[in-house]
Structure formats: C-alpha cells, structure tokens
C-alpha cells in the first residue's frame, strides 16, 4: 500500500489511536493502583499506630516504655523501611528499625486524637509515608500528652506499582493486538463499498454495465447517483453529437452522390482526365465523411457485442467482388462459420471493408480470408498476392492519411479508420508478409475477461 492509500492512512491512524489510548490507560491504571496501595498502606499504618499507642505502659520506676511492641517483624530489623516513634515529655521511644536515627516529625499542633498524614525524609534518605497522632495518656500512665507516629518507605509502594505495571503490560499488548485486528476488519468492511464502486465503474468502462446502480450503503449512494447522472449526461451529449455528425454526413453524401452523376456526364463529354480528377476529389471527401461517421459512432464507447466474422466477410466480399478491381479476382473465404468475434458486426464490417478493398486494389489474382481463435483471442487475416509493402513503409501506411501509392484511388484513411475501431474494442491491426508473397493484414481481438 502506498502513502496515498486511504486504507493505510486509516490503519495508521487507528494504530496510533490505539497505542495512545492503551498508553494512557496503562498510566492511569498504574496511578490508580498506586493510590489503592497507598490507601492500604495508610490503613495498615493506622493499625500499627493503634498497637504502638496501646502498648505504652509505666515501669515500677515510673518510666514510660513500649511494653507491647507491634507484631510486624520489620520493626525489629534496622532500616527495614517500617518504623515507629513515640515522643513523650520524658523521652523519645522508637523502633529498633530506626537504629540510632530519629524521625523529624513536623511541629504541627494537633488536637487530642487527631491523625495527621504527611511525608518526610527517613534515616536512609528515603521518602517516608508517615501517620502521626497526638494523644493524652490516661491517669494511670501519667496523663501526659504524647506524639506517636509510624512510617513506611514509599519505595515499597513504588515497587508494588512497578510490579503491577509489569504484569499489566502483556495484557495491554494482547489487547492492543486485538484492537488493531478489529481496526483492520473495521477498515476493510468500511471500505468495501468503495471496492464495489470500483468494480461497477470497471464494469461500466468495459461495457458490461451502463450504470453503477443503487445497491450501496446510504453514505455512498449519493456518490453513485452523481456518477450515474454524469454517465447519463455524457450519453445524452454523445447522442446529440452523433446525431449532428449523421446529419452532416447525410448533408454531404447527397451532394457527393449527385456529383457522381455529374462525373459520368463529364466523362460522356469526352473529358476523361477532368472526370477522373473530380472522381478522386469526391472519393477523398467520401472517405472523410466515412471517417467522421466512424468516429461519431465510437465516441460513446462500446458495449458488449459479438458477431460471426464468416457472415460479415461474406457480405463484404459480395460487395467488393462486384467492383472493377474485385471482379477478376479469385476470392477464398476460409473463416470458420462457427467462429465468434467479440466485436459489433457493423464495426467489423467497416474494418473488413477497408482491408478487403485494399487487398482487391493491389492483388494480382486472389484474395483470401482466414480466421482462428486461441487463448489470446480471435485473429482474422486478409491476404493478397500483390506486390506487398516493404517492411520500412508499413508504419507509414498505417499512419493517418498516409498512402503508399499516391497515384491510386482513395484518401489513405481506410486503415486509420480500421485502427480506430479496433482500438475501441481493445484490438489491433498489423501488416505482415503473406506466405508465397503479397501482404497479410491481421486483426487481433482479445476475448474480454469475466
């Protein structure tokens, strides 16, 4: 797929959107998990804080001590990340995990029983989550105020969050892959109407259909309707153009027919050279009219059609053999009767007429027509036993308006018209040497696919 592909753009946009969404979701879930872990940690610290305060007692020497230490063994391991500390007017009690350090509690003025949550720097320079409470001890413990605090290393929260993110990443990757597959399927289904339009346009272009139709989703149907309206307008324009060309041709052919009668009268007055000159001019004009008629007929494009070349060749040969050039020749029509060619019968008549007339004009004794079909399509050949055409001049003969024999009849447009008609049907015309001498004009018509 190229960079200009709509499919590629949609897939890239979808992939980027999915990756951004999953990244945001991953970050959001990690933050939510961290907050959840921190709330659980605060709840755990509250339990430890209650145990620390409840464990205070007085010795026989009236000294305040921590008689019942919290059960968590981390309080007994130096710098374990879990600490407790009690500040009294007499001394500072602390967990073994603090070793010889001390928590620098903030000098907040707390009410009796008030809990304060904050952060501070620990004994190893780490950030601690601290839960602090100020209480007034009962009379049996001296009735003095104390500040008790428990602290947890925030690195433990971050470690739990990192482990959660590591466990979450594979699931996000699988989810992303699934979403990308779903995006590909969505893009494929969404672009399917465009593929259907392309196929319908191809059918219209190849002549297998005349309109796109309305069998499309509601979002695409207006586009198909506009294209069909454009096709209808084009057909109307071509119809008008063909009608004008036909009117022009009719207007020209009638005077040319009258001119043919005048030529005979001039020749009867013993003005042969003058009559021949006028006849050549009239023939050239007739060729130009035929050319424009053929072009007007092909302007609207072609629609699927077939014909039997053997029948067309029989009609064309029947006309040409009655002309002065064709009457003395031997005609052989060897085109199989069951051969079918993918071309309109009138168009093939125009093509074979030009080729057969040229063959009759240059043949010495005979003209032959053959036809075959293979996997490549249909091939029709018109052979004559005349002098042929040098290989370096064949291209010139096929060029528009070019003639090999400047003294002969015709305007040189017959082969050009034949090429235009064959090109409209996807075919081609080639000139080769005929076996035994002469010229072989070969028509190739490919069989349409589908």
UniProtKB/TrEMBL annotation:
Pfam family, one: HATPase_c
Catalytic activity of the protein: ATP + protein L-histidine = ADP + protein N-phospho-L-histidine
Any single GO BP term: phosphorelay signal transduction system
A GO molecular-function annotation: protein histidine kinase activity
Keyword check for Transmembrane helix: yes
Gene3D superfamilies: Histidine kinase-like ATPase, C-terminal domain
Compartments in which it is found: Membrane
Enzyme Commission number: 2.7.13.3
Keyword Protein biosynthesis annotated: no
GO cellular component: plasma membrane
Key words of the record: Kinase, Membrane, Phosphoprotein, Transferase, Transmembrane, Transmembrane helix
Record domain Histidine kinase: where: 247-449
Name of protein: histidine kinase
Native organism: Roseospira marina
Lineage: Bacteria, Pseudomonadati, Pseudomonadota, Alphaproteobacteria, Rhodospirillales
